Amino acid sequence: MRLLLHQVVCLAVLVVIVLLLAGCSSLSRGHEALLVLGDLAAGSEESRLKARTEAPTREGIRYAQEGRDYQADVYHPATPDRGMMILVHGFTEDGRRDPRLVDFATTLSRVGFTVMVPELEGLRDYSISTREVVAIADAIRHATQALPEGEPQTALAAISFAVGPAVIAALQEDTAQRVSFIVSVGGYYDLVEMLRYVTTGEDRHGEGQAAPPPQRGARWAVLLSQLQWLEDERDRERLATIARRRLASQAESAEDEPIGAEQVEEEVERLGPQGRALYALVTNQDPARVEALIEALPPSLIAELEALDLSNRDLDRLEAELVLIHGPQDRVIPISHSRRLRDALPEGQARLFEAGGLEHVAVSPGWRDGWGLWRAVNHVLRLGEQQQ
Predict the structure, then answer these.
(1) Coarse DSSP helix, strand, coil percentages of the chain, rounded to the nearest 5 percent
(2) 291-323 b/e with 16+ CB inside 10 Å = b?
(3) What distance in Å separates the CA atoms of residue 337 and residue 188, rounded to the nearest whole number?
(4) InterPro entries annotated for this entry (predicted)?
(5) pLDDT at 208 exceeding the cut of 60
(6) What ranges make up the beta strands (E) of 89-213?
(7) Long-range contacts: 264-273, Cβ < 8 Å, 24+?
(8) What average pLDDT does range 131-144 have in this prediction?
(9) pLDDT of 343 over the 90 cut
């Protein structure tokens, strides 16, 4: 606790010195950014931001776009002075009511954002696909239709595997001008390279820097996310059983050999051709085989991977500014993905904040490199002010 307090105090002193040189408006915003970081670290516990601000009200809503029905939560701040933000959750069975997501949305709303959190079924059941693109684009349409006249834009914030669908949703012909900026936390750019890293540990775009070893269990989360494209229901059930057993055993055991390995091998023996192809990709450890293993997947799965891949997209139609926040030691999606996404856009359209205090999408307990996180939050608050 003393170390954490010392780090926060040192960061605060440095921030104050910089902001005194920058002016009163920046000083106030910089202080807010510190309060936001403190509140994110506190979660549902007490914080200075909670003590200083009124809690937002949460409203559950239903809406429809062209016959497609949705649910969402909207967090209304006591003082709505930073415009609308659509917050897209990552993989979580709790969906929009995931406690961490609720805390995040509440924090954003305490500093003036009206936050809309749509329920995305594909991210709840680990079956991400282009339907999430449609759902996010529909959320943009609904949010901007509901805004007062003269406020036609909203911001987007997306986490991890939701970043690709969010960016693609903001590329649609009728949504491109409705999104002012996008906050990407630990997002991907190239799905082939993401699969290569998660399965083999190789990051080919690491700019000479060795990537940390991938997180144990990440490959099994990827397996769960693609099962819906297998035609054989028995393959889907067997692979879901394998993935969940592997995830559970790796959470319980520090050993390399997962618990229940014999039962897993028995399930693998019963797989059909499509199931075997997907299992071969997920368990592969040879970086050179990744492309060939992808080509052996069912055509519907390949089509979805290509549709969600940002590296083969024409990003020229993206009008929103991009705020990329990524931890250099991310063990799920390497920081090289955010660097490449930044470089794929015109100079100045995207800013990357390399935040050492970020472990994929969670703030580390010690706030390592709190300076990077503070700069990112300060920038988001400034962009939010410009929406008004």
Answers:
(1) 55, 15, 30
(2) eebbeebbeebeebbebbbbbebebeebbbbbb
(3) 5
(4) AB_hydrolase_fold (IPR029058)
(5) yes
(6) 114-118, 154-159, 179-185
(7) 267/238, 267/239, 267/241, 267/242, 268/238, 268/242, 270/234, 270/238, 271/235, 271/238, 271/239, 272/232, 272/234, 272/235
(8) 95
(9) yes
Q: Which two tokens stand for residue 36?
A: 């936001």
**Cβ–Cβ < 8 Å for 200, 229:** no
Residue 68, burial from CB neighbour count under 10 angstroms (0-12, 13-18, 19+):
exposed
In the numeric block, which tokens belong to residue 355?
Answer: 């935040």
> What mean pLDDT comes out for the span 249-253?
61
| Residue 130 to residue 262: CA distance in whole angstroms | 36
Number of H helices, E strands in the chain: 16, 10
Please report the pLDDT score of residue 2 as a whole number.
Answer: 44
User: What's the pTM value of the predicted model, to 2 decimals?
Assistant: 0.88
Q: Which two tokens stand for residue 264?
A: 């897993």
Tokens read off for 9 = 């105090």
* Domain coordinates in residue numbering, the chain: 56-190+314-364, 214-308
What mean pLDDT value characterizes the chain?
87
CATH no. for 56-190+314-364: 3.40.50.1820
> Which one-letter amino acid corresponds to residue 108?
L
